[in-house]
Structure formats: C-alpha cells, structure tokens
Amino acid sequence: MMKKSVPSMVKDPQLVKKRREQMVKGAVRLFIEKGFHRTTTREIAKESGFSIGTLYEYIGSKEDVLYLVCDAIYEEVSRKLTKQLDSSLTGIERLQKAIASFFQVVDEMQDEVLVMYQEAKSLPKEALPYVLQKEHEMTAMIEAIIRDCVTEGVLSLSDDQIKLRAHNILVQGHMWTFRRWSIQKLFTLEQYTALQMEQLLASSR
Amino acid sequence: MMKKSVPSMVKDPQLVKKRREQMVKGAVRLFIEKGFHRTTTREIAKESGFSIGTLYEYIGSKEDVLYLVCDAIYEEVSRKLTKQLDSSLTGIERLQKAIASFFQVVDEMQDEVLVMYQEAKSLPKEALPYVLQKEHEMTAMIEAIIRDCVTEGVLSLSDDQIKLRAHNILVQGHMWTFRRWSIQKLFTLEQYTALQMEQLLASSR
Amino acid sequence: MMKKSVPSMVKDPQLVKKRREQMVKGAVRLFIEKGFHRTTTREIAKESGFSIGTLYEYIGSKEDVLYLVCDAIYEEVSRKLTKQLDSSLTGIERLQKAIASFFQVVDEMQDEVLVMYQEAKSLPKEALPYVLQKEHEMTAMIEAIIRDCVTEGVLSLSDDQIKLRAHNILVQGHMWTFRRWSIQKLFTLEQYTALQMEQLLASSR
Amino acid sequence: MMKKSVPSMVKDPQLVKKRREQMVKGAVRLFIEKGFHRTTTREIAKESGFSIGTLYEYIGSKEDVLYLVCDAIYEEVSRKLTKQLDSSLTGIERLQKAIASFFQVVDEMQDEVLVMYQEAKSLPKEALPYVLQKEHEMTAMIEAIIRDCVTEGVLSLSDDQIKLRAHNILVQGHMWTFRRWSIQKLFTLEQYTALQMEQLLASSR
DNA sequence: CATGAATGAGCATTCATTCAT
DNA sequence: AATGAATGAATGCTCATTCAT
Q1: CA-CA distance, B168 to B176, in Å (whole number)?
Q2: Helices C189-200 and C91-108, packing angle to 10 deg
Q3: Of A106, A133, A160, which to mutate for an interface test with B (greatest number of B Cβ within 10 Å)?
Q4: What is the mean pLDDT of chain C?
Q5: By the 8 A CB rule, do C83 and C104 touch?
Q6: C65 near C119, Cβ under 8 Å?
Q7: What's this model's pTM, rounded to 2 decimal places?
Q8: Per-residue pLDDT tens for A26-46?
Q9: Which of residues 128-147 of C touch D (CB under 8 A)?
Q10: pLDDT above 50 (res C139)
Q11: C29 to each of A182, C38, C41, C116, how far by Cα in Å?
Q12: What is the pLDDT of residue D205?
C-alpha cells in the first residue's frame, strides 16, 4: 500500500521534509484547538512560520495538510511503540508490556490521537485506503503478539477471540483520550492500564 | 441538568416540535452523507421541506441543528433501549440482555451513532455539558445493572471494575460502528455480541 | 440550437431577467474599459448595483457573465438590424439597405461589438456552439439577401461567391470597429459604407 | 517609431537575443494553446527551458513576453512576405502575387496570427503605438503595390479606394484565421484566394 | 548569470444569517 | 408564519514578482 503522494512545487527533498514538519507541527496545534474545518489555511501558514504562498508550495490542498498530520501522528505512535517493544520479553509479559506501552504512548499523544480520531473522516478520498491500512497494520501487530501467547500456550483463545482482543486493545487505548472527560477523572493511567489488562488477559475456550 | 434551549421565533409548541422533527430527519440524512461542515443550511431547509427563512424561525444557528440532531439520536437510542429492557429479568441474564440490546440498537442506528461520534465536537459550547450528562446517564444505567449483579452475588467486581466495564460496554457498542470497516467484515452482530459478552461477564476480584 | 442555460438560485423569472440586465449593463461597461480578465467579479457586482453575494445568485461563474454579455449584444444587434430591415425593398436596394444598416448598427454599438470580438475566446466551452450558431445565422441572413438579388437577376454570382460575400460583409462591418484606430481616421461611416458597397455589389461570372 | 525597449538585467546582447528567442518560441505555443491570461510565467519559463528567475532576467513583466511574441510574429510575417515579394513582377501580377503570398503566409502561421489578433489588446500600453505602426507599415506596403498598379494604369482607383483595399486585403488575410471555423470548411486556400482576388482587383472610377 | 524558494496581494466563490414582504 | 432575495465576511487557492544564494 503506497502512501498518498502530496504534491510539492519545491524540488529539494530535504527542504520539503523540513517545511512539512513545521507545517504539521503548526497544524496539529491548531487542529487540536479548533478542529480541521475551523482552521484556515492562513492560520496554518502563520503558525508554521511562513506565508500562505509558501504553504501552497508544499501541498496541493488544505486536505493534504490533514493527511500529512495524520500520517505524522501514525508515524510517531508507531515509532514510540516500536521503541518500547524491542525488548526481548516473551509470552504474557510481552503482551503486558505491549498493552502498557500502547496506552502510555496514547497518553503521551492524547491531543494528537484525538485529532486523528475526530478528523480522519475529512481526509481526501485517496488517503482513506492508506489510513485504513495503517490501522490494520497496528491491529495486526497486536494480534501477532497475542497469537504468540496462544502458540506458547500461556493464553487459550480462538482465532476470532484473538482478532477481537486486538481490536479491543486498540480501542481501549484510544478511549483513554476520547472519553477522557470521564475516564481520566476516575482513574490514573496506571489504574486504567491495570484494570483493562486484567480483562484483556483473561483466558478462555 | 437542563437541556440547552434552542431559540425559536414561533410560539406554538406543537408546531415547533413538528418542524424540528422534520428538520432533524432531513439533517440526519445529510450529516450521514456528507458530515456537518459540508452540509449547508440551505440543504437542510430543502431536505426538511421548507425554506431557509423558515429554518431560522426554529433555530438560532446552524449549530443548533446539530444539537437537535444529537439530542434526537440520544433520545431514540434511550427509547429503544428502554423498550428492550423493561423485561423482568434479573442478575446475569438482565446484564446479558442489556448488552445484547445495546449492541443491537447501535447496529440498527449505525449511521446516526456514527454521526454523533464524529460531529459531537462541533456542538455549540453550551451544549457540551448536556451531552456529557447524557453519556453519563447512559453509563450510569449500565453501571447500575452491573452493580445489581454484584449485589446479587452473581458477579464479583470492585467498584472501579464496575465503572470501567460500563464504559467498555458503551465503547464496544460504539466501535461496532466506528470500526465497522474491519469488525463487520470479521463478525456478524451475533458473533460480535457473543465474543464481547464472554469477556465482559468474566468475573474476578 | 439551445441557448446555454445559466443557473440561478432565484426563482422569479422577472427578477432574474431584471437583475441580469443590470449585470450585463454593468459588465459591458467594465469589459469595454478593461477587458474580461482584468475585470473582477466584485467590480461587476458593484457596477451592477448589488453585492457580490447577489451576483452569484444569478450566475454560476464569472464566465457566465461573459456569456450573458455576448448573448445580449447579439440580441441587440439582431434586434436593431431586424428593425431596419422590415422595409419592403427588393433586389439591390434591399441589399444596399442591409449593408448600410449593418454597418450603422455596428457603428452604434462599436464598443460592444469590439468586446465580443476580443473576449469570445474566453467564453465557457459549452457556450461556443451557441455563439458560432449565432454567427452562422447572421451570415445566413445576409447570404439570403444576396441570393435573392441573384435570383432576381440583378446580381450575377456563383454560390461560392455569394457565401464569401456574406462573410465579407460581416467582417467589413466588424472591421469598422477593430481597425477603427486607422479606418475611422480615414473615412466617415458614410464614406466607408459607400466605398465598401461599391465593391461588394460588383457583379461577375 | 522606436521599438518598445524591453528591460533586461543581462548585458551580453547575443545571449539576450538567444534567450528571448527561446522564450518566444515557448510562449507562442502556450498562448496558442490557452491564451495569454491563462498562461503563467512559470509555464513560460519551463516551456522555454529555463527557470522563472532566469525569465525575469530577460523581461520586466509578463506583458513584455506578449510584446516580444507579437513583435516576433510581425517580424516573421514580414520576413516571409518580403521573401515572396522580391520577384521582379510588375502591375497586376505583382499585386496578385502579393495578395496570394500574404494569404499563404497567414495560412502558414494561422495560430500565430490568431494569437496576435486575440491578445494584442493585452499588450502593455507603451507597446501599442509600435504595434499600430507595424500594422500601418504593412498596410502601406500593400497600398504601395496597389498604387503602382494605378500609376501604371492597369487599375483605376481613387486614393480612398486604394487605401481601403489595402485594409481589405489585410483583413481578408486575417479572417482566413479568425473565421476559419466557417471559411476553411467552405474553401481551400486556393479557392479562397481566387475568389477574394476577383473582387479585390475589380477596377472602377 | 542562473536558480528556485518565498512572498502576499488578489481573486472567484461560498454560505450562514437577516429582513422586507 | 413562511418565504426567499440580499448581504458581505470569510476562505481556499493562484501567480506575478523578488532576491538571497
């Protein structure tokens, strides 16, 4: 699955990368504050530190900014998660570590994750497959870890159960942000993690 | 918690009710199709069967339409759910029935629930407390049913666990819609319900 | 050949007609002064006596204004010409009258004719067939009058010659405007008409 | 009458000449395709084979490109025509040759001539006198040939008639391009030339 | 000389809202 | 109460031109 390519008038890839990073940084702040639709391209340009003309040297449309933002957030979540996971744990401990790490990453990037959740529907049509793919990869990653536990015999779950739990883990990570008005009043992240883990690791069959 | 009052120039409450029902019906269809921001007030008026001038006789701003829509959706979910729950079941069975009913209602109102999820952030500021309150009521309702199980001794959960499971039930209902691109490909509603129930009803302490 | 239909948000045809007349009047003045491309929609709105929003209640795009302008000019040229031609002359005299009338109409509407000549290429794609049709009708009208002369035996021309002379008459009318910087310095309209007529009526075969 | 001078930052006249030739070649193609206003300076630079920065080393404004283009077209028409005319014909034959040659040159350079016709109005103010001068020279050239015929006694025309016929010849050449949608469907260039010549050479007084 | 990134004034168009009828 | 024409601020985007490298 190819990344959607965002058109740029500027040739130098280094510069494109740098400017887009500025842009994403500025845009995330604005999208968090007021949402994609209420943010104007001029505001994005200003917040990014350049003019409206320059903004359009690096994107083709406002929607492209949203795509860049979502892509960057995915990338960072992946990066952070991967960093946490390179430990050489096995079995249940590895899964526990994965869940805790994921929840922690979501906690660290609350606003960003929330933006992605709320604005993904405004992504340009061509970007949708790519984003779904990213979600799928994430789910598959968790799924694999769970499956290892089953293979190792430390967890007893059917294939369907494995798949669904992977989804549940993802969503329970996300809900830490999108229900924060309630959940974060009830629990600390540690409490939340412990309580959810308890259920997620319950075996069956 | 008072409902946010939506201003109307029209005095006759019967008429206001009728017109707003037309409006909500039209708006829901449009919001499902293209989202709140991409829907114009003119389109809402047309779809509702009256003129743009008339639309503004019954609301104060476009956001009010969104509020009315969200409110109506909550109302219908509540209504449908209440209808399903008036059985005289007790204990685990009552909870099972509640979960299954909730999932089923969400399934019946997929598009509507999705709209609420995706557009709630655009609600007028004053409406937020009311909406959160609604969510809270819903959670509290589920919570009460779980608590009954615990009281009856058929489930062994701490207070924190009760609260979190109520949230999980809600979110697992919602995710049937917002992750449908994946989950509904893997499971039928019945399968999904059975699999989730299994975990949700697992006891502990 | 159907007229291109220009979309309007306003229902009342009377009003549409009235507003579009205002619009055409304002736009012609501006197009004469600065050309189509250098005229902004805001200027058109202002010159027409209403707001930019109102302008767009009566057209779909800036190009539509140009189409409306060209159409109105054709219409007026036709109207004026028809009015002049309803005399019951025959043979050469009728042709003479037609040529003189046409030149006179072009003279009266110099600026308008020039605008049409210079901006027609910017017309919306769908309007082109209609405009060519109009030109063709005009040519056919002249052609018919020449043909009558031939039929009556007062002029001796082949079919090709008839067709070409019709074109020549049209173009010689138009060139009174688009070469005015030179021709109108050399001749009065009467002189010009007399001199051109002389050649145009020369018989042959 | 001086040529309008187009400012250049570059000193070497050879280079200026070369670059401007590239520029004109590229621009003509673009102007033919989409007109002056719809062509961007970036496109002109690209089509010319150099950067936008370089483009502005050789011109002062976009309008200058149009002027250069028009000038080049005049130049080439003149050149081609002169080449055809250096025969040592006399009298009617010389005029016939001139007309046929002119029509042929116009036919060979249809697109270019059309561009000049349609975009001349967008020329920078200061360029207008020069362009009119060019037109005048052309007319004068034809005029001289006709006058020779009169002097030689092979044609009998008043001074006014001579002047007007010169204009007619020019315009009838041009109309081969700007009415091509109709005329070129009716006639081949040879037919067209023969038919027009017939009238243009008719004597009188 | 050549380059191309940066600029920002300018433009067409949209749309929530008002108000006279 | 209902209508729909009018409004104009706001917005996404373009493009001629400049200037540092």
Answers
A1: 12
A2: 140
A3: A160
A4: 94
A5: no
A6: no
A7: 0.93
A8: 999 999 999 999 999 999 999
A9: 132, 135-136, 139
A10: yes
A11: 64, 13, 13, 12
A12: 47
CA angle B75, B81, B83 (to 5 degrees): 100
DSSP of A46-102: HHHTS-HHHHHHH-SSHHHHHHHHHHHHHHHHHHHHHHHH-S---HHHHHHHHHHHH
How many angstroms separate the CA atoms of D158 and D82, rounded?
Answer: 26
Q: What is the pLDDT of residue B1?
A: 64
Nearest Cα neighbor of C24 from C50, C4, C5, C48 is C48
Q: Which residues of D touch C168 (CB under 8 A)?
A: 172, 196, 199
Pinpoint the alpha helices (H) of B86-158: 91-108, 110-119, 128-151
- Please state the φ and ψ torsions of residue C128, each to the nearest 5 degrees: -55, -50
- Cβ <8 Å between D136 and C182: yes
Confidence of residue A90 (pLDDT cuts 50, 70, 90): confident
pLDDT in tens, D157-188: 999 999 999 999 999 999 999 999 999 999 99
Instruction: Judge if the beta carbon of C15 is closer than 7 A to nucleic acid strand F.
Output: yes
Q: Alpha-carbon torsion A49, A51, A56, A61, what sign? A: positive
What pLDDT is attached to residue B89?
Answer: 85
Rounded CA-CA distance C162/D199 in Å is: 12
| Confidence band for B86, pLDDT divided at 50, 70 and 90 | confident
Please report the pLDDT score of residue D132 as a whole number.
92
For chain D, give the secondary structure using H, E and C.
CCCCCCCCCCCCHHHHHHHHHHHHHHHHHHHHHHCCCCCCHHHHHHHHCCCHHHHHHHCCCHHHHHHHHHHHHHHHHHHHHHHHHCCCCCHHHHHHHHHHHHHHHHHHCHHHHHHHHHHHHHCCHHHHHHHHHHHHHHHHHHHHHHHHHHHCCCCCCCHHHHHHHHHHHHHHHHHHHHCHHHHHHHCCHHHHHHHHHHHHCCCCC
Q: What is the pLDDT of residue C204?
A: 59
Among C127, C123, C139, residue whose Cα is nearest residue C171? C139
* Cβ proximity of A38 and A49 under 8 Å: no
Instruction: Using the predicted structure, report yes or no on whether residue A21 has a pLDDT greater than 90.
Output: yes
Mean local confidence (pLDDT), D77-103? 89
Q: Does residue B2 register a pLDDT over 90?
A: no
The C-alpha atoms of residue C47 and residue C50 are separated, in whole angstroms, by 8
**Residue A65 corresponds to which tokens in the numbers above?**
């900014």
Question: DSSP letter at A11?
Answer: -
Share of chain D above pLDDT 90, in %: 87
Whole-angstrom Cα distance, residue A62 to residue A39? 10
Q: Chain B partners of A168 at a C-beta cutoff of 8 Å? A: 172, 196, 199
DSSP type of residue A177: H
Task: Please tell me the distance from the alpha carbon of residue B139 to that of residue D5, in angstroms, as a whole number.
Answer: 80
Tokens at residue C42, please? 């805001």
Backbone φ, ψ for residue D90 (5° rounding): -135, 165
- Distances in Å between the alpha carbon of A130 and those of A70, A119, C23? 11, 15, 48
**B204 confidence band (pLDDT: 50, 70, 90):** low
Q: Which residue is nearest to nucleotide E19 (CA to C1')?
A: B53
Largest CA distance in chain B: 60
